[in-house]
Amino acid sequence: xxxxxxxxxxxxxxxxxxxxxxxxxxxxxxxxxxxxxxxxxxxxxxxxxxxxxxxxxxxxxxxxxxxxxxxxxxxxxxxxxxxxxxxxxxxxxxxxxxxxxxxxxxxxxxxxxxxxxxxxxxxxxxxxxxxxxxxxxxxxxxxxxxxxxxxxxxxxxxxxxxxxxxxxxxxxxxxxxxxxxxxxxxxxxxxxxxxxxxxxxxxxxxxxxxxxxxxxxxxxxxxxxxxxxxxxxxxxxxxxxxxxxxxxxxxxxxxxxxxxxxxxxxxxxxxxxxxxxxxxxxxxxxxxxxxxxxxxxxxxxxxxxxxxxxxxxxxxxxxxxxxxxxxxxx
Length: 330
Description:
The protein is of the alpha+beta class and 330 residues long. Helices cover 46% and strands 10% of the residues. Helix 2 crosses helix 4 (87-96), helix 4 (87-96) packs antiparallel against helix 5 and helix 11 (213-225) packs across helix 12 (227-234).
């Protein structure tokens, strides 16, 4: 690992045959890995936080666990040791740290290796896509990856069922919400068929990500928390992605019927722009009422007033909303 000293003492020569640029590169790699490790919370990747955590993000041993590499070996990387790292291990570390396309490329350059899968899609959301989400209002829209993580959304999608901003980041996953969140479970019209198809689509997509820690962690969480998911997962059903009608039962305005469309944001199946266009005029009017109610609650909160109906708590279903509830579950 360490290099021998130069054969002759030359003024200005380094005490090691290792070029100074390599030493600088290893230190830059160590700092880069540390910065990316510290930005990921343990909850985000399905790990317990524990009572004595000092680091703001993941521990070194947790990254090693997620990437399936040795703890000592990964520690040496962050200590800028002179060790060889293979492209396969770098790929595992990049996935464990959820690096985007630019960060992944930077990692391989610093490590002096060629990326075995160059151009891997970036999980981030660009400013133009975020602008598009906002301009689509009052229609609900979001950016979702093939793992069902909701990585960005507009105001209409935020309030479609519950206020997504109030949920922990790691819980903003439609699979997790559909199987474990009480309000989302209630909101899905024809829920049994919906979750069956979701589980089958998820298994189809996971075939290309079997070794990735974030996918395995989500499956582990669902298997632990949902008997319904355990039963569906054991069937090994598969379904290809498609566009179909979607129906939600919002507790404030009632049943919402949509034509659902997914628009891929890259050449491969990955992040996609998901739009929900009202399939009837009543849904359009109810969406407008929902957004107006959300704006009124936000304004009231800014003035320090108590929230009205549809704010915190779960209002009783009355009027047309109750009628829709009976129809949806009939």
